[in-house]
Design a protein that fits this description.
Elements lengths: L7 H7 L25 H15 L3 H20 L2 H10 L3 H13 L2 H29 L6 H4 L6 H19 L7 H8 L2 H12 L3 H28 L5 H17 L1 H28 L7 E8 L6 E8 L5 H15 L4 E8 L16 H5 L11 H7 L6
Length: 388
């Protein structure tokens, strides 16, 4: 066996630095990340389920009407518990997932079915809440309505997270029970009802704010569903690239108004903290004032801050001016300060006056006065006083 060169294949096999293709490590390409691919049975099951959920059916319409009535009454009653119940019943998230998958896969039938169901459900919600708003005629909005008129970037983050979990729960049957929590987190129906209530009272600012919140939730859920379905291997990347680009562009358009709302929220928190600190710690004049509540009006410029307080003594305009200038130097932005003062008075029930003790002489001789006075005429007759 001498003189025979060693087997080159055996030599390479003994050297772990060279792979089976005889490529050394220094010349290998990095591993390319590939998305998982769902098997045909899972893909078919998902498409059938999404089509069934997105279809405009009698059950869907009844759930939309019922959830809208519950949410509208809860908003007018300012009851968070009732509004949460409406969020659980509302079925608007189901066609959004179908629309997202249809756009991702290029399935026009599924995409149009989801769009139609979303449009009809939104129209019914606005119409029912409009009729209820006109019927009740609520004079002013509660905190639950006002909370849905000033969306910000936090709402977009909630919509993205809820949409991703909703799509993941649709793929994984074992976590389908979490859909109720997702529906509560994203809250699609209450903004729709606020739009109708605003239109019923010709309050365009309220309707526009609620519309922005609803569009934010809608697009955020759709984008998160697309990304989740793509990551789970239910759509090829070359088909999904165009739809993802369009949806991402639409979401980016919301960054400007949502960013303005986020800035306003931060400024409001700073201003409220500065006012509270000034009232409690930094000023001697207002340390005897009890802050009950604070309201902010951002429609006017500079914004108005209305403080409802209880005070033992009246508050003068000079004191309000000094406090306004003091807090403005701390916050760095102008604002108008308005006090609504409730005088603190201690009032108790009336107590009867104590009775005076009776004279003992009167008790012994009730018919004789205590200090008898003798008439002059009787003295004349008795001769004690001469008549001249």
């Amino acid at each position: 066996m001498e003189g025979i060169p060693p087997n080159p294949i055996d030599a390479n096999a003994a050297d772990p630095a060279i792979d089976s293709n005889r490529i050394p490590p220094s010349r290998r390409w990095p591993v390319v990340f590939r998305l998982p691919v769902a098997n045909p049975d899972e893909y078919a099951e998902l498409m059938v389920g999404l089509m069934r959920e997105s279809r405009l059916s009698f059950n869907y319409l009844m759930l939309v009407i019922g959830s809208c009535v519950i949410a509208t009454l809860g908003l007018m009653a300012n009851s968070p518990a009732v509004i949460i119940g409406a969020m659980i019943v509302a079925p608007l998230m189901l066609p959004i997932r179908g629309m997202a998958m249809g756009a991702l896969e290029g399935n026009l039938v599924l995409f149009r079915t989801g769009i139609l169901s979303i449009a009809v459900g939104t129209g019914i919600g606005v119409g029912v809440s409009f009729l209820l708003g006109r019927l009740v005629g609520l004079p002013q909005w509660g905190s639950e309505v006002l909370a849905r008129t000033q969306p910000n970037l936090l709402d977009l983050g909630v919509a993205l997270a809820a949409g991703g979990i909703g799509a993941f729960a649709r793929v994984r049957k074992e976590i389908a029970d979490s859909l109720a929590g997702v529906a509560i987190a994203v809250a699609l129906m209450p903004p729709v009802c606020v739009i109708g209530l605003g239109l019923a009272h010709a309050d365009w600012r309220t309707s526009l704010g609620a519309t922005l919140l609803y569009v934010t939730n809608l697009l955020g859920i759709a984008l998160a569903c697309m990304v989740t379905f793509l990551a789970m291997g239910y759509a090829p990347l070359h088909k999904a690239r165009s739809a993802l680009s369009w949806m991402l562009g639409l979401v980016m358009l919301l960054i400007v108004p949502l960013g303005a709302g986020m800035t306003r929220l931060i400024y409001q928190a700073r201003l409220e903290a500065a006012l509270r600190s000034a009232l409690l710690n930094k000023t001697i004049t207002f340390q005897r004032v009890t802050l009950v509540r604070s309201d902010f009006n951002w429609v006017v410029y500079p914004p108005e801050v209305v403080l409802s307080v209880r005070a033992d003594e009246p508050i003068t305009p000079r004191q309000v001016t000094l406090l306004e200038e003091f807090v403005e130097s701390d916050v760095g932005r102008p604002f108008t300060l308005i006090f609504q003062v409730v005088q603190a008075q201690e009032i108790r029930r009336e107590t009867p006056a104590p009775e005076e003790p009776e004279d003992p002489v009167e008790e012994e001789n009730p018919g004789i006065p205590a200090n008898p006075v003798t008439p002059l005429s009787s003295l004349f007759h008795k001769g004690i006083i001469p008549p001249y």
